[in-house]
Design goal:
2 strands, 42% helix, 5 helices, mainly alpha, globular, two-stranded parallel ribbon, single chain, 106 residues
Length: 106
């Protein structure tokens, strides 16, 4: 969302309005390596980007990861054991919906 649609602060602001803490990932603006078919056509570079993204995520030790991009969900989940869900699942849960399946053990 941040690169293709230039959406940066709005999802974080929505989550903050639920009274929950949003952690900032160091170098969060950098790609995870999944952009479109990038992880297929440029596997070596995509793997390097993924390793950097995961290292930065794990620096802040979040309980879980949330992103609005299914490509990022798929890519990042291959590099970490931290549960990752879509931002809409998170907002649904924080506003009275069911707890996401991937977070049941938290």
């Amino acid at each position: 969302m941040q690169h293709g649609q230039k959406v940066h602060s709005q999802p974080k602001e929505l989550i903050a309005k639920t009274g929950n803490e949003v952690l900032e990932i160091p170098e969060g603006h950098l790609c995870c390596g999944s952009a479109g078919t990038y992880n297929i056509l440029h596997q070596k570079m995509a793997k390097s980007l993924l390793q950097n993204k995961v290292k930065n995520i794990e620096k802040i030790s979040p309980d879980f990861i949330s992103t609005g991009n299914i490509g990022c969900i798929t890519q990042i989940s291959t590099g970490t054991r931290i549960p990752i869900i879509h931002t809409i699942e998170l907002l649904d849960w924080f506003t009275g919906g069911p707890k996401p399946y991937k977070l049941q053990n938290l």
